[in-house]
Amino acid sequence: MRLAIAGPARERERLLAALIELAPAGFEETEIEGSERVEFALYGAPGELPELAPGRATLGDVEVEVRCELVPSDWADRWRRFHRAVRVAGIHVRPPWEPRDRSARVDVEIDPGRAFGTGAHATTRLCLLLLSTWLQGGEGRERLTVCDVGCGSGVLALVARALGVERVLALDQDPQAVEATRANAQRNRLELAAIEQRDALRDELPGADLYLANLTGPVLQRLAPRLPRQSWVAAGGFLRSEEAVVADSFAPRIAAARMTEGEWCALLFAPPQSTAL
């Protein structure tokens, strides 16, 4: 099925913020030709899509038009185009149908299954950049502990392990994400210290030197006070319009690095007493 949500282009950022919470596995975005409207499309089997009735609805306090229709016969090709290979800072992340890049620092193969993505989304790319920046910013950081909170299909955790981090933990509240991360770890012959189902906002979190948190703005605000102040945090998944409130929630940490792509933003937060990136 294809669930289409159309709204005013001027409200694009508000719709994006609402959709990333509603559909973290991703969605298509197209401009409606000849109008000042934008359409977002989600694909899935009956019962897997968000429960939005066709017709007029409200999403993120924005009035939208919702349509539900059968997917076109070329859906398999569309799905493959959506999950494409990406190269960031010499890191190559690809779905199984893309060829290996032997010139890359690391090449990680990710089958998204029903979890979040293969690395092609802007928020994941930005977090990969922050991870690379953190590793290069201090000697011996490969010997520290990295925890991927909300690991999805395991992209960030597996890249961290492939880059040489000795102890990597992956957590997600979704059992399908835990299953996908385990399968992708086996696919890449990478061993993680732990792959566990945990709710980051309710369950006890393990200690780590760096937390990777590619979530959403509201979730990051709730997560921030639960993380040890002496730890680094690579936070992504929020819009540039949310940057100030996200940064405030991580105080007294300071933003040591900032990455943006389009309307998306990611910040690397350093412990209050840190003197080096």
TrEMBL record:
<dbReference type="Pfam" id="PF06325">
    <property type="entry name" value="PrmA"/>
</dbReference>
<dbReference type="GO" id="GO:0008276">
    <property type="term" value="F:protein methyltransferase activity"/>
</dbReference>
<protein>
    <submittedName>
        <fullName>Ribosomal protein L11 methyltransferase</fullName>
    </submittedName>
</protein>
<keyword id="KW-0808">Transferase</keyword>
<dbReference type="GO" id="GO:0032259">
    <property type="term" value="P:methylation"/>
</dbReference>
<dbReference type="InterPro" id="IPR050078">
    <property type="entry name" value="Ribosomal_L11_MeTrfase_PrmA"/>
</dbReference>
<dbReference type="GO" id="GO:0005840">
    <property type="term" value="C:ribosome"/>
</dbReference>
<keyword id="KW-0489">Methyltransferase</keyword>
<keyword id="KW-0689">Ribosomal protein</keyword>
<keyword id="KW-0687">Ribonucleoprotein</keyword>
<dbReference type="InterPro" id="IPR029063">
    <property type="entry name" value="SAM-dependent_MTases_sf"/>
</dbReference>
